[in-house]
Amino acid sequence: MKTIDFHCDTMLRIMESSEGAGLKENDFQVDIGKLQRGQILAQFFALFFELDVIQDKKKSPFDHTMEMLEGFEGELKKNSEVIALAKGIEDLERNEKAEKISAFLTIEEGEAMEGSLDKLQHFYQKGVRLITLTWNHENQIGFPNIRYKSRDRGLKPFGKEVVEAMNHLGMLIDVSHLSDGGFWDVAKISKEPFIASHSNARSVKVHPRNLSDEMLKALGNAGGVTGINFAHYFLSDDSISKIEAMLKHMRHIINVAGIEALVLGTDFDGISGNLEIENIGEIQRLITAMEKEGFTTKEIEHITHKNGSRIIGEVLG
Prior knowledge:
This protein is α/β, with parallel strands linked by helices. It has a single domain, classed as Metal-dependent hydrolases (TIM Barrel, Alpha-Beta Barrel), CATH 3.20.20. The chain is built from 13 helices and 11 strands. β4, α6 and β5 form a beta-alpha-beta unit. The longest helix has 20 residues. The chain is globular. The two termini are 24 Å apart.
């Protein structure tokens, strides 16, 4: 069954590779061959960086992100016969008809904007259609939810401006990694559906990166979605990322937020350890497990691609 995955960190792995790895074929969790085997309709590729790492390298967040963006463009150009950039629903449908995978470009760390709405506009013009407002560091937008240290701290003034500007441009606001206070500010300010691209249910596995039932309800009521993250530490207390745990989170999210609030956000190439689904090429194993668990065909279609297509159409146009 065709599937949309809302988050992977593959571009960082490619950019850091000392062996010249590329998107066509690599030893990572996402490449062209694996995407094809997994029947992936669209893959969201994050331009991810750690603030402290690039600061040590004397690089600015904006320049570093642009370097990754140029690398991403190069990979698409080299593989243009099978994958193409998508900026909205028309591109998604056009690529599907051409039997090409759609690649959506995202940024995971809002400090890439360096406090400038002009830089946000620049990223939009370059094709970025989703921004994860924070990673694990405080930035000019707001605060992360790592270890609940800044749990109740909300968006900073610039962060509120970013939410409004992204609404105006037609970009997906991603609250994964954002503090609880920041989440509620986004829920209050955003006029458009927002998403948690790779977060699970806090009631099933207590973790600051997962969403509480109240947050899930608010997300669903806003027309947003959350993407099931395959990392074991967001799934259960087990040291293995198990399909069984994914299904438990799925059922809970559906019960709390509704079937239309659930998508997939694997976090591949940002996670490691023992994984029952080791890479994007094995994603159909989850579909099979969902069928055996009693998920209806309609439910599975919503989770795998219809909810994703809907929010792409509603927000990105």
